[in-house]
Design goal:
mainly alpha; 15 helices
């Protein structure tokens, strides 16, 4: 168990590096991840990720919803306005096709990612606020994500909002609530506490499987278009993510938030649950049946997969920048 705990901590610390290595492996050895795209395995893997998130939540984490409702409201409104609208504008600016447009908008319409909680801790942000925002935005995602997709991408591509609502409810919200129940009833048991310790590593491994499956899917298109597609996607994802960080921070400044809360809001807005976006893109815009009819449909998952790795990298760098600021201020 001690070895598993050490491995889990290593994976949590070097998430972005591990995801990149898995993506490279999937490109050169695609058959190793073909199993992920069979049936509903990707959805099951996402459900496991959300279960691990729920198992780390306690009743104390929900206490912030009652004590600081206005902070949560400001954060969630920023989450579900800034990133979706920025994604929509970038799709117009870069003249993306319908599938790429759906992919980047889907990233913007998803809730905040669990990694933002870790980054908030590393840069001395408001961790309780971060957990509260992630929890609320995730709970609202079955409604907000389909509605925003229908509004912003419905003119470009067919959006099954009802199907998306059911899918998010089943593979996102239900596992989270189940995990919370496990933590409530089993949280004091030593064996459960040990299991909690390896959950970050399990989550990273599951995310790596999802990314590997996506690389397997988009590999033919990537080979055909090569560096151009990769650079285009990186440019869009970088601008989307960076603008989210900036506007999130400015929103916190506009509402006179403390430095810790501004940092947290910046990370929460900028870092999305790209794993969830990847699975939704695969289920609703780039399923094997859809790709068989139109191979370009595979491009819908590409911005989501790139975001999985990039958000972790940029979040780590931003948290490091905030920490460096603290060190400089301490010297003065």
């Amino acid at each position: 168990m001690s070895s598993l705990l050490s491995l889990s901590r290593w994976l949590a610390r070097y998430t972005s590096l591990f995801i990149i290595l898995v993506a490279i492996l999937a490109y050169f050895v695609p058959d190793a991840f073909a199993w992920v795209q069979q049936g509903q395995r990707a959805s099951v893997i996402l459900g496991l990720i959300m279960l691990t998130m729920g198992c780390t939540l306690s009743t104390n984490d929900f206490h912030i919803l009652l004590t600081r409702p206005m902070d949560i409201l400001i954060g969630v409104v920023a989450q579900y306005t800034i990133m979706p609208l920025v994604a929509w504008m970038l799709a117009r600016l870069f003249h993306l096709d319908a599938f790429m447009t759906a992919g980047i908008i889907l990233v913007g319409c998803c809730p905040g990612g669990v990694s933002s909680n870790i980054m908030s801790f590393l840069c001395k942000g408001d961790v309780a606020y971060s957990v509260g925002m992630t929890t609320v935005s995730t709970c609202l995602s079955p409604i907000m994500t389909p509605l925003l997709m229908l509004w912003l991408a419905g003119a470009e591509i067919e959006v099954d909002a009802w199907g998306m609502f059911q899918n998010i409810l089943l593979v996102t919200l239900l596992p989270v609530m189940l995990g919370v129940a496990f933590n409530y009833f089993l949280g004091k048991r030593k064996d459960f506490l040990l299991i909690q310790g390896i959950m970050p590593g399990v989550s990273v491994l599951c995310l790596a499987c999802i990314v590997g499956g996506v690389v397997f899917t988009v590999r033919p298109q990537l080979q055909e278009t090569g560096l151009r597609l990769l650079l285009l996607t990186l440019a869009v994802v970088t601008l989307h993510n960076g603008t989210g960080y900036l506007l999130g921070y400015l929103a916190g400044k506009g509402f006179a938030f403390s430095t810790a809360k501004r940092r947290t809001l910046s990370l929460e807005v900028g870092m999305q649950n790209a794993g969830m976006a990847t699975v939704l893109a695969r289920n609703f815009f780039a399923s094997p049946a859809m790709i068989a009819v139109n191979p370009m449909a595979a491009l819908a998952v590409f911005p989501c997969a790139i975001s999985c790795a990039y958000h972790s990298i940029s979040g780590t760098l931003l948290a490091g920048f905030f920490s460096l600021q603290d060190e400089k201020n301490a010297e003065h």
